[in-house]
Amino acid sequence: MSLLKISNLHAGYGQMSILKGVDMALEAGEIGVIVGPNGAGKSTTLKAIFGMLNITEGSIEFDGEDITGIRSEALAAHRIAFVPQENNVFHTLTVHENLEMGAYIRRDDFSRVMDHVYEIFPPLKEKRRQPAGELSGGQRQMVAFGRALMIEPKLILLDEPTAGLSPMFMSQIFDRVIAINKTGVTVAMVEQNAKQALAIAHKGFVLANGANSFTDTGRNLLENPEVAKSFLGG
Amino acid sequence: MNDLVFFINKGLLSGMIIGSIYAMGAIGVTMIFGILRFAHFAHGDMMTLGAFVTLIIAALLASAGVVLPCPIAFAAIIPAMAVTAVLAIGLDRIFYKPLRNAGARPVVLVMASVGVTLMLQGLIRLFAGVRARDMFIDQPKDIFQIPFPGATRAVILTEPQIVLIGFTVVAVLALHLFLTRSRLGKAMRAVSDNPELARITGINTNHVVWATWIIGGGLACAAGSLLSMDVTLKPDLSFNILLPIFAATIVGGIGQPYGAIAGGFLVGFCETLAVFNWSVLLRPIKDSLWFELPRNMALVPTEYKLMVPFLILIIVLIYRPTGIFRGRVL
To answer: pTM score, two decimals?
Structure first.
């Protein structure tokens, strides 16, 4: 049984429909990458999963439960975490407080997870008393990842984690994504840098005009001449 | 020396007292703005409402035969704060929450709060009439004369003023600890910083909204009660200080609780120092002055006191639009 199963998803803002039949299935422990041209509905798909959109048709199942149209606040309890593309840290809160907020729904002792996050992102430990807004773009992204990891998610949704970062940071971020995935977290990621992202993906979903146009393993998509021609720039 | 004591009484102490009132009001306004994103114009009347709740509880306690070492109204403030906090949550439930849920723009909520102001004023007048009341129902208020070395005049402080200053210090410290140490306090800062991300993180927005009204309502009640003890309780008591409170909020930086405190005291001191008769202080050295000392040398005549907060506001908006503590730009 798939951990995440999206069937024939139609969703949009208000009456305007952006997604017109998206299908996705991810097994536990996989990395799924959503690519496609601008306006294809990549980020919209993540937002729809995270209850930020009007779903008019179709369903989203997670771990055997129907989570279609559930409110954003309630998803953390299902251990689904979302890292938005922009404004993904609390600027005025310190790095440490950002991580604490990530664990807001936890009433148990989460110091072990906190140590783990500081272990994956050593620069954060150094700057734990600094407001997150004072950090560089790459470090802010680490805070955003760390915040999301605090609930020990089963599924993490990443919306263009490398947007606006220099190529050096980009490969670092991809390394982190792989590392996070290795600990057993399923990843669903939207990426502009389609080639690099598909290279690390177990599954790839190429969206166009709000619907799947190709669905395959990451490798097969990279090797598919048609995908290469129309979406990966040759 | 007597002139210095006069300055302490009329300038510094009254600045501190009115500043405390402004600060406590402004904390509520700034936090409501930070969390709920609208200017709560009914805050002044929430203060009046809180003062009336204190008076009612005090009267009930007195009629029940309760005798306390302090005036009964002081003891009544604590339960009145709780009642006002509940009333504030109720007002939010009935008037503001439905609008928020319907996705109304902030200006609609501002208008709704103006409506709530008018409604509260009407209700208070309906039940309590328009006359001024004395909050000290069981015993007169104590006035302390603190002798000042080398002066025949004494520094004068009344009982409610001492309680007010003490209460403000405690409230500010408690608020600081709450916002920086507690889980809910940090969540409030998180929601104020980035509501969307707070929702994504799973922070329960309802709890944060309640906490906002509890703090705002509780402080409004305390400030309103202590202000009406210092003077008298009238239905239009706090409506007059609503505008300086908003000035203090903006001067401090909107959405910044520490800014609200600083802004409150800044506006309070500026107001009293602007209407203070400076010739009193200059009189001892009048022979060495190059001009003849007028009898009254206040910067602003008392009738125009309300102008001072706005002057500060305009200066701040021109030279530092985000306020002292870098809040949001309107």
So the answer is: 0.90
